Amino acid sequence: MQIEFFGATREVTGSCYLLHVGKHRLLVECGMIQGSRQHERHNHDPFPFDPAKIDAVVLTHAHIDHSGRLPLLIKRGYRGRIHTHRATADLCAIMLEDCGYLNEKEAQWENRKRQRKGLKLVEPLYTRTEARQAHSHFRSLEYGRAEEILPGVKLTLRDAGHILGSAIAELVLTEGSQSRKVVFSGDVGHRGAPILRDPEPVSQADLVVLESTYGDRLHRAWDETWHEIGEVISSARSGKGNILIPAFAVGRTQELLYVFKQNFDEWGIGNWQVFLDSPMAIEATEVYTNHAKVYDKRAKQINRQSGDPFSLPNLHLSEKTGDSMKINQIASGAIIVAGSGMCTGGRIKHHLKHNIWRDHAHVMIVGFQARGTPGRSLVDGAQYIRLWGETVQVNAQVHTIGGLSAHADQQGLLDWYGHFESRPRVALVHGEPEAMFALSGRLKSEYRAEAIQAEFGQKLVL
Question: Cα(272)–Cα(277) distance, rounded to whole angstroms?
Answer without folding.
Answer: 15
